[in-house]
Amino acid sequence: MTALRVDVVIVGGGVAGLWCRWALANAGYSVVLLEHSKFGDGQTVASQGILHRGVKYALSSEAARAAAAAEESARVWDEAMAGTVGPDLSRVEVAAKSMLMWTDAGLLSKLTGAIASKVLTSHVGPANSAEIPSFLERRGRTVYRIGETVVNPVSVLRCLAEASSGPLVRATVRSITPLASRTMVTTDAGEFDAGAAVLCSGAGNAELLRLLGQQPEHWMQRRDLHMVAASGAPGMLFGHWVAAATDKPRLSITSARVDGVVHWYLGGALAESGVNRDVDEQIAAAKSELDMCFPGMSTDAWQFRTVRIARTEGRDAAGKRPDSPVVRSIESLGVIAVWPTKLVMAPAAAEGVLRLVASRLSPSKSTPPSFGPSSRPDYALPPWLSRP
Fold first, then answer.
1. Which segments of the chain have a pLDDT < 50?
2. For the domain with range 98-148+225-309, which CATH number is right: 3.30.700, 1.20.140, 3.40.50, 3.30.9?
3. Cα distance between residue 335 and residue 197, in whole Å
């Protein structure tokens, strides 16, 4: 079977892979994207959909740098969702146009200082009474409204998939063979002769790196999460509970309403500290945190499940979270490995990929043949709808 010749093969159909596809195709490169499972089946769909603008970093010692990186990427999202610049994301489902952030009494002065020093570049101001749900206890707390949009990640994937042309193929990579000036990618759906290969598979990048004879731990790191999905909440809520002077809210809560049932998706420090807990222990911890955050609100009739996320990032020597996307060429192999770090930073990751590809080859401005709809992956379901 003759290998299909293209400019770039992208491996991974999450938000980073699809945004890279748009950026490259928009620049005139012929692109094929390969996804072995479903679009977003990993970190993208399991994310909370928050387009962070640096607010959560306000109390961190490295707030300014992290906040600036998040704010810059969030502005790209704003333009794309307005349909003015970038991929057309005007049909993305916006779950919330802003979030709440409430602090316990001892943190008010520190947070106010961070806002006054302009560490937070997005709009931050006191929330008015109409924006604060009745079940959120306000005594002893200050509640802010912060300019962070929350999107439905699946709707983002759908818009990105339709934003540019080029085959989207369900395929499992068997081998990646660097040649003199090309890279051969062999899959169960055929062979692809590419000018460059881009690895955007999140945790799956580990196996792809091994195919290249690389040691994944030299390129990437894991900071896993153990999220909690809770069904039966009394109302919609999008917010952060800040109860310590760190860059990790004690709880981050996003919501969805399906068939009249409200689902809360719980992240923050609960998800980070819960990695070493089993399912029952993590659910018990979630109930305890909810009891403390919402005194008097019973969760007895709620249904709980947990979601483990293999969160991967580009390697940091100290094991810390990178402040920006990690986009690295793998020596002289014609392969680029990508870790966007956060959902909001996908456009910055794509810009970095385009820059590296352009330094290696010129766009052919050709269009690869279609593989037909039967070869196209489905979309992953959000955690509260998918099976345990």
1. 109, 113, 116-121
2. 3.30.9
3. 5
